[in-house]
Amino acid sequence: MASSESYNGYTNYETWLLCLNIDNDEGLYDEMRNIALSFPEKTSAYEVGMAIKQELESLFYHPDTHIYQICDSWTQRDWDEIDWCEVAITRREE
Question: What is the mean pLDDT of the chain?
């Protein structure tokens, strides 16, 4: 599933799909947006992205199967392809 090509305006398919999953769940959307906006404006996108990643991992990682289960199932390989800086930037801009 990993891709080096852009997808619907996002860095890759994995980043687009994660943002789609977040955007399609109001509670999750609000939570991720609140995380992004809780940082001072000058905080790096990387730092904000890592906070979002950490929160999503705490919510959706299943250690028994090594899968991240949001709306879709994600392997570690898929998860590692996500551009967390881009996720942070889009959460701040909306």
Answer: 90
Number of domains in the chain: 1
The structure tokens 């879709």 sit at 72
Within-domain flag for 4: no
Confidence of residue 73 (pLDDT cuts 50, 70, 90): confident
Would you tell me how many other CB atoms lie within 10 Å of the CB of residue 87? 24
Q: What is the pTM of this model?
A: 0.86
DSSP the chain: ---SS-BTTBSSHHHHHHHHHHHT-HHHHHHHHHHHHTS-TTS-HHHHHHHHHHHHHHHHEETTTTEEESSSEE-HHHHHH--HHHHHHHHHH-
Give the whole-angstrom CA distance, residue 17 versus residue 74: 10
Residues belonging to the chain: 94
